[in-house]
Amino acid sequence: MRIALLSTEDLSGYVTDDDLLVGPLRALGHAAEFVPWKQTAVEWRAFDAVVIRTPWDYQNDLPAFLGVLGRIESQTRLANPLEVVRWNADKIYLRDLAARGAKTVPTIWNEGGIDGRRVEEWFRRLGSDELVIKPSVGANAQDTLRLKRGEADADALNVLFDKRPCMVQPFARWIVDEGEFSLFYFGGEYSHAILKTPKAADFRVQEEHGGSIRRVEPPAALSAAGAGILKHVSPAPLYARADFVRTADDEFALMELELIEPSMYLRMAEHAPRLFAEAIDRWLR
What we know:
Elements: E1 2-7, H1 22-27, E2 31-36, E3 49-52, H2 62-75, E4 77-79, H3 82-89, H4 93-99, E5 108-110, H5 116-126, E6 130-135, E7 145-148, H6 154-161, E8 166-170, H7 173-177, E9 180-186, E10 189-197, E11 212-215, H8 220-230, E12 239-246, E13 252-258, H9 272-284
Parallel strand pairs: 1-2, 1-3, 3-4
Antiparallel strand pairs: 5-8, 6-7, 6-8, 9-10, 9-12, 10-11, 12-13
Helix pairs in contact: 2-3
């Protein structure tokens, strides 16, 4: 079958290894090619399926992106499906997961303007001297800020987030001390896990921001947390990445559940490209 791997027009400056997926798909009888989501002349029905992979600029124009996905889904099969993408595009999905019993990082959701009184209230409510604020719709740590009590500039925050809903969380010290864990799943099957650690004097774990990664074997509690999160998602996604951080009580809290365009770090596990390709093959058939 012919498969489009949905991407963006320019991936320079990003670290991606989705090219490792093409060979295993070919071995299973499928022809895969990367197609930018902004190409307006694409006849999507010419593909047997479209798998969203690296459209890493979608957050800059979410309505247009969702519109493209709607056209795709009206003409062929889409993974992950539009229903899942719509839900996962706004990080308020974390509130849904918490309501369903998932352990998540405590979060305040802010949809209005920001002033000094509100910022101080965030510190008080979350019981932390350091906070992280980021847009509810965003990717790759874009516009993600670390705030310290007494140093936060409310006026600057208001300029950045006045017209954009945002989320506020206590700064997870474990991200600096240990790192952020990512668990990867294909067709609901666990594949591999990595630990991402930020560079010195930073808290962002993405490679584009200088973070480092290594493959790890997740402890039993982390494996259980990952499997439990997926049970809360319907319809079941073709692929998923769950990001966790260790808590002060030695449990694991969900930072994000990536169901749209997560980097799957296929190069970190020899079996991962084949496992992903096999999941796509089962989904197609």
